[in-house]
Design goal:
Elements (H helix, E strand, L loop, with lengths): L1 E4 L17 E3 L2 E3 L2 H7 L6 H7 L4 H8 L10 H18 L2 H8 L5 E4 L18 H14 L1
Parallel strand pairs: 1-4
Antiparallel strand pairs: 2-3
């Protein structure tokens, strides 16, 4: 069985990084995991805090994807672990969604996005689905 998620209002929308389940991490409050993830592209710069303070995750995503801003040099090496950290905190600090994640049993979790072949499944399903994989890793951790 597979569980597909993407839009925050869908059945498993809480799995989306855009879903409003805030958490505290690195001594700061983050509105969404999208805010944290995008801000870490600019760790220890003014842009990190600017992204953290934006009022919605779409604005955080847009600013984080702006290649006119100075992306940290080690981004490709650290991005998976940053996503793991954000997802871990989101689900461990919000019991209601932790319970939803654990309740998915052995189902394959897939971010159903047509334009992201790294974090999601991509248009034709050939994407890496890294966000789905991280969610399934976390589900195992939470179960133990």
């Amino acid at each position: 069985m597979a569980i597909y998620f993407y839009k925050i209002n869908d059945e498993y929308g809480c799995f989306s990084n855009f879903a409003h389940y805030g958490f505290k991490l690195d001594g700061k409050w983050w509105m969404t995991s999208e805010h944290y993830f995008q801000a870490q592209k600019f760790y220890d710069t003014q842009y990190e805090e600017e992204i953290r303070l934006l009022d919605n995750p779409m604005k955080a995503a847009e600013m984080g994807r702006n290649r006119d801003l100075p992306l940290r040099k080690d981004w490709e090496q650290v991005k998976d672990d940053i996503m793991r950290k954000a997802v871990f905190e989101k689900f461990t600090q919000n019991k209601e969604i932790r319970d939803i994640l654990v309740s998915t049993g052995e189902a394959t979790i897939i971010e159903n996005t047509i334009n992201d072949y790294y974090w999601g499944c991509g248009k034709n399903g050939s994407g890496k689905n890294m966000l789905g994989k991280i969610l399934m890793e976390l589900r195992e951790e939470l179960r133990d």
